[in-house]
Amino acid sequence: MLKAEVIAKSAEFDSMGINIANEMNSLGYKINKVRTSSVYLFEIDVDRKFIEEILKDQITDEIYFDSKNNMDDYLCIDIFAKRGVMDPVAETLSSYLKKSGFESGIIRTSRRFYFSSQKKVREEEIIGFLKNRYYNPLIEEHGTFELKKGISEESFNLIEVSLDCNLIELSKKMTLSLSKPEMERIKDYFYNTKKRKPTDIELETIAQTWSEHCVHKTMKSPYQYKNLKIKNLFKETIVKATEEINHKDAVSVFSDNAGIFKFDEFTNVCFKVETHNHPSALEPYGGAGTGAGGVIRDIIGTGLSAKPIANTDVFCVGEFKSKIEGVIEPEEILKGIVSGVRDYGNRMGIPTVNGAVCFHPNYLGNPLVFCGSVGIMNSRNSFKKVCDNDMIVVIGGKTGRDGIHGATFSSVSLTDESQEISSGAVQIGNPIEEKKMLDAILEADGLFTAITDCGAGGLSSAVGEMGEHTGAEVYLDRVPLKYDGLTYDEIWISESQERMVLSVNERNYENLKKIVEKHNTNIAHIGYFRGRDLKIYFKKKLVLDIEMSFLHKGIPLSLKKVKPYINAKERSSKVKINVEEAAYKVVGHPDVKSKEWIIRQYDHEVQSQTLIKPLGGETQAGANDSAVISPIYKSEKCLVLGCGINPRYGELNPSKMTYAVIDEAVRNVLCQGGDIEHSFMLDNFSWGDTNKDTTLGALVESCLACRDYSVNLGIPFISGKDSLNNFFMMKDREIEIPPTLLISVISVTDKNRIRSSYFNDSDSLVYLFGENTKNELLGSVLFDSYRIKEGTMPSLNPKESVKTHSLLSSLNKTGLIESCHDVSDGGLLTSIFEMSLGNRIGCNIIFKTKLSPSEFLFSESLSRYVITVAKKNRELFESMASGKAELIGATNSTGNISFKINKTSVKFEIRELEKVYR
Amino acid sequence: MNKFKSLVVKADGSNCEIETDFILRKVGFESDIIHLNTLMHEPKSILGYSFIVFPGGFSYGDYTGSGRIAASIIKHHLLENLETFISQGKLILGICNGFQILVKSGILPNSSKSFKQEVSLIFNDSHKYEDRWVKLQVSDNSVFTKNFEKTIYLPVAHGEGKFIYESNKTEIDDLVVLRYVDEKNKPTMKYPQNPNGSTDSIAAIADESGRVMGLMPHPERFIRKEQFFTNKTEINEPHGIRFFENAFTYIKEEL
Q1: What does the pLDDT average to over A244-271?
Q2: Residues forming a β-bridge with A155
């Protein structure tokens, strides 16, 4: 055995140690110094010179093999991955050593922390600090760091499960998350059709396939809502809208891993957004990272594979400084998920270009993580078809015991014990493994007939789905494993990351294998698509034998009788708040405040295709409403990506929230120069407790609103996803998230139409464009800041709003608009401030209105934009804006923004507001 | 032999090879992207090129320190041929992770001529990965940095970009080609203009010959005017292209 510790020669080279010490002292720990190091254990003694070269920096590091360092006075704590948890460092080292001809055996790595303090520091206290910041007990441990031997292979026993018992208890015991009617259907199938008991792997497979996560049974169920009878909620609302619109550029909708639409004559683009809520609550870094990794694989697995070109992320977390037992604090959750998405996206070389963060007290126990990815593909690669007798091929990472039961786990509520008991459901990603796999797949264009990713449910879902029409025969012993000792059902349902399943014609296999091996990744031929049924063998024994038709069509869907959501009562009330004081509160509100600390950590420019970035202007702090990507250098076309989300509205009135967030997403895209006629939408529902009839009522109301506004806008849904049962069970009560709908819009537009959101000329006219400003402050940032709960919510008339958006879309073609930002969270004053910040250009707004100044400046009425136009173009613009634009002021070079509303005048220095905003 | 052949060296986890290859072609090179796995078996093949670029990314995940494993592969398999390549008067450029690889394999600055690591790039003072645009002062100490204005703008995106050195200051001073500057165009230690805390504000260095250079900013990400982060400052051309054009011109005239 060989042990190596690498530590910086002097504290100045240990920026992590310095940062931890600062963090601890700011929290009241009395710490003098923190040092960090990396410790490596190798089962077999490897050439030390070689090891030194790959671990130690000649300028800054020392390496210790047997000798001890001189850190005896420090308290020393090792943090290392639990057995079976992915350790990307060990995996990379092991593969490189092997390639260089060294046999190292098992490698384990640890992060070591040293603490010194005047007073004696107690280990428990330090662990308390590290926990959930630098150490997650779910996947890591502390204590004596030593090499553990692999477990030897257990003998193989096929387990049959009797269904003559309490079926609900069995479902719980096996974490199947199946209902009583579903369990009874299964019993009927095995006992009456197959005339035998099911095996454990058969039950697991059905549970995975029938899980909410895989089949979306709640969305596809029949509903009774008031007098309305719905046969299939999803088909009669979301899909129906898309069918009615029948967009000529929609290529593949709701059928593949992502929705596909036309970009230009030769190229299509696909877009998908996924949720990864429950894993992120327990292990924010790993949960969010694998969320990003998963949606990227969705793109790689769309059609005959697309190349990911941009990522998006939206997070919903509890309010900072709030805390309950058994959950990670919101601030640490947010830091963790940001790091997870950052490390996955950055390492994969995909720019993260658009997103949002919202806060609401009810996300405290159940945060939401939405990860999106956009891909580009040759048009001819848009469709896949598995052929009879194609080989089933797995490529990418090896299979381990990580992430057992993720799909079924994601369908149940979280409790204060989840962090202790659900360790199996969380995985850690290795983005480099996925990058190698991506590079191999892109190079292997044409060598496979279908492809899909191993996501929730692992091989069971991927093979089950691909083989629906052909049948599949799988030999589990052929799956490459990380270590011995996995049982057959573990191999089959493991959610080890970074794997894809391909169907390959036998004649192409050798070529594919060469390419995959060149990229240092794994490939295995594990079976054939044939025989109509699903048959799984392990060590020559048949362990699973189910008809595909039962697997895919057997699930019973029962009628859901639901009740309307109890909307907030609205009542008009006059609002008179001191504008100056309110401005600082609103601009400093967590939902409005700059997200620069997050955005900077993302590489938003890799691939060199990003034109409009999340932040810009001279200050590099001017927020843009959406991002613009130009994936083909020579093409005149580009893509605009934006989103809308609002949990405050969702809690008050899910239907109005739905209109509002669709409106917001559309506005964001049009601000940057988008084209409403070439736009496409994604829906992501994150909903609460589906056992509550009003929660399901809210789902129906939201779906109906989606259908209505989508049809009016002519913007079809092309893909979506729902995540249900987002609530947290405490011993005495349940915290249910507000109905949350994320709408993402992507638009194909001409490059010459794009522009930034902030002012770029100090001598332009400022217009308020679109619908009228009304006293609509219920649910607004202003009311949230003052805890006011009485008023009227923003609502819209779809026909009128569409007129506004269409007009802006056609104005986008004229080049008359210099800059454009929508009015949303925080109202007009916030919009004007954000526009002024990019280049610190001031403006003077003068307006007379029936509303009070605070109503006018902070109302969040929908379908409104702020637009600037050069003075010389005034007449032309006003004639084209046909009554939708009102001149409200002009930009200037004072460095101030000032407002005169009726008789009230207020003035702000941009730099003063910036202090609370940034 | 076509002397305008360039090679982009890819490793597991490289992620800027495609855009780097793109700009090389755009300025006139016939460019190939080849994986280190292939090159380690055919090390002589690099001599068929005039210009080698190590692109950005996270080679081998940077899991044991940025660029370290890639540097190890280079030292064990390619060094001899790289030495010949350099002695033939040819060009090498390392961008971001490529700069880290060049530094850690001792190819840059190689003042000792013995390919020992002499300088390093370590974690940013913030200990965070950061993407932002920086203003840089340019010196023409390398063949890549001729005919520039005094200052240019480029984006940086890295977690380990803090430049440090052990040797004496004057020796390094002659090798510096880019420095982070403030709004008054003075080299700065102020954050965020100096985004990582680099000693003497150093963002890029070249070897004595000026033919081997490494930089933390990404020139391949500023090849179209629309990529510029602001529309308030006037620019004549996107500042990233000239690095590659200069390489082409040098090969055309001097090789």
Answers
A1: 97
A2: none
Please tell me which residue, B21 or B255, carries the higher pLDDT value: B21
Same domain, A176 and A114: no
Question: CB distance A16–B127 less than 8 Å?
Answer: yes
Amino acid at A356: A
Which residues face B158 on adjacent strands? B130
A690 Cβ partners below 8 Å, 6+ apart?
Answer: A218, A696, A724, A725
Say if A825 falls within a structural domain.
no
Tell me which chain A residues have a C-beta less than 8 angstroms from the C-beta of B164: 13, 59-60
Indicate the number of domains in chain A.
Answer: 2
pLDDT tops 70 at residue A716 = yes
Higher pLDDT among residues A544 and B232, named by residue: A544
Question: All domains of chain B, ordered by start, with CATH?
Answer: 5-254 (3.40.50.880)
Residue B199 has pLDDT above 60, yes or no: yes
pLDDT in tens, A100-136: 888 888 899 999 999 998 887 788 989 999 998 899 8
Asked if A120 and A7 sit in the same domain, the reply is: yes
Q: Domain ends where: A142, A161, A189?
A: A142
Q: Tell which of A12, A94, A606, A639 to mutate to test the B interface (max B CBs under 10 Å).
A: A606
Q: Do B57 and A349 touch (CB under 8 A)?
A: yes
The chain A residue lying nearest B16, using CA atoms, is A607
- DSSP code at position A396: E
Residue A647 lies in a domain: no
Is the confidence at residue A12, as pLDDT, over 70? yes
Which residue range forms the structural domain that includes residue A522?
A: 170-210+384-557
Q: How far apart are CA A851 and CA A899, in angstroms?
A: 14
Tell me the two tokens of residue A363.
Answer: 């996300």
Determine, for residues B133 and A603 on separate chains, whether the beta-carbon distance falls below 8 Å: no
Query: CB–CB of A512/A478 below 8 Å?
Result: no
Ramachandran category for residue A539: left, alpha or beta (phi over 0 → left; psi -120 to 50 → alpha): left
If you average pLDDT over residues B123-141, what whole number do you get?
96
Query: Does residue A163 sit at the B interface (CB-CB below 8 Å)?
Result: no
Residue of A16, A18, A92 with shortest CB distance to B61:
A92
Say yes or no: A174 and A137 in one domain: no
Last residue of a domain, one of A127, A142, A157: A142
- Is A671 in CB contact (< 8 Å) with chain B? no
Tell me, yes or no, whether A449 and A506 share the same domain: yes
Residue A83: inside a domain? yes
- As a whole number, the mean pLDDT across chain A is 93
In this prediction, residue B165 carries a pLDDT of 94
Q: Tell me which of A390-394, A434-438, B148-152, B234-238 is least confident.
A: B234-238
Closest residue in chain A to residue B197, using alpha carbons only: A15
Are A70 and A184 members of one domain? no
Task: For residue B155, list chain A residues with Cβ-Cβ distance below 8 A.
Answer: 605
CATH number at residue A185: 3.90.650.10
pLDDT at A697: 97
Q: Are the Cβ atoms of A603 and B157 closer than 8 angstroms? A: yes
pLDDT for A419: 53
Nearest CA in chain A to B75: A53
pLDDT of residue A413: 64
Tell me what pLDDT residue A642 has. Answer: 98
Q: What is the pLDDT of residues A485-495, one digit of tens each?
A: 788 988 998 88
- The catalytic residues of A are 213, 276
Q: Is B114 on the interface with A (CB under 8 A)?
A: no
- CA angle (A109, A114, A120) in 5-degree steps: 145
What are the backbone dihedrals phi and psi of residue A329, each rounded to the nearest 5 degrees, phi first?
Answer: -65, 145
Determine which of A137-151, A369-383, A409-423 has the lowest per-residue pLDDT on average.
A409-423
Pairs across A and B, CB distance < 8 A = 164
Q: What is the DSSP string of A752-800?
A: GG---SS---SSEEEEEEESPP-S--TTSHHHHHHT---S------HHH
Tokens of A178: 């199946």
A185 with A88, same domain: the answer is no
**Same domain, yes or no, for A552 and A489?**
yes
Do A430 and A526 share a domain, yes or no?
A: yes
Pairwise CB contact (< 8 Å): B123 & A16: yes
Domain annotation covers residue A462: yes
Task: List chain B residues with CB under 8 Å of A520.
Answer: 12, 37
- Among chain B residues, the shortest Cα distance to A620 is held by B229
B164, A13: Cβ pair inside 8 Å? yes
Decide if B131 and A754 are in contact by the 8 Å CB cutoff.
no
The pLDDT of residue A414 is: 65
